[in-house]
Amino acid sequence: MRFKLSNPLQSRQATTRLAHLITKGAVVDITEKKNQRTYSQNSYLHLILTAWGNELGYDLDEMKQVVKMQLLPSMFQYKKRGLTLYKSTASLDTKQMTTLIDKIRLTAQESTGFYIPAPNEHEMLQSLQNEVERFG
């Protein structure tokens, strides 16, 4: 069950539910749910990675690896049993996605001169989309 604790009614419902589970001696898992990235963020990320990847000669999956390993490894890297592993972009919340997108746009422009339109530059994004579809 999910409860939005900033809502007084749902906060009381969560407290009641927890009290009930305590009386039962239940085993529970309490986790904070972060705002997941939005569908529009995800679509935009895939578009810009595909477009920049086309420019550099990489496909989408390869570009995801480049970003994880070179652009923002601290956001994706973790160690397990002595190995360095990389988590998926699906694990990012909206704030982290914004950080990632901003870093990609800046790096593309600075390192390769490839301009990535901002999310509100609709005509330029449509042109980018057309180019991606034509190329791929």
Structural summary, described in words:
The protein is mostly helical. A two-stranded antiparallel ribbon has the order 1-2. The longest helix is centred in the C-terminal third of the chain and has 19 residues, at 94-112. The protein is elongated, with a radius of gyration of 20 Å. The mean pLDDT is 91. It has 2 domains: 1-33, no CATH class; 39-135, no CATH class. Helix 2 (39-56) crosses helix 3 (60-71). The chain is built from 6 helices and 2 strands, in the order H-H-H-H-E-E-H-H.
Measure the end-to-end span: 43 Å
> Total helix count?
6
The general outline is elongated
Low-pLDDT windows of residues: none
Question: In total, how many domains does the architecture comprise?
Answer: 2
The H-and-E topology, N to C, reads as HHHHEEHH
Question: Can you give the helix content as a percent range?
Answer: 55-70%
* Overall pLDDT metric: 91
Largest sheet: spatial strand order: 1-2
Number of strands: 2
The helix-and-strand class reads: mainly alpha
Largest sheet: number of strands, sense, barrel closure: 2 strands, antiparallel
What is the percentage of strand-forming residues?
5-15%
Radius of gyration: 20 Å
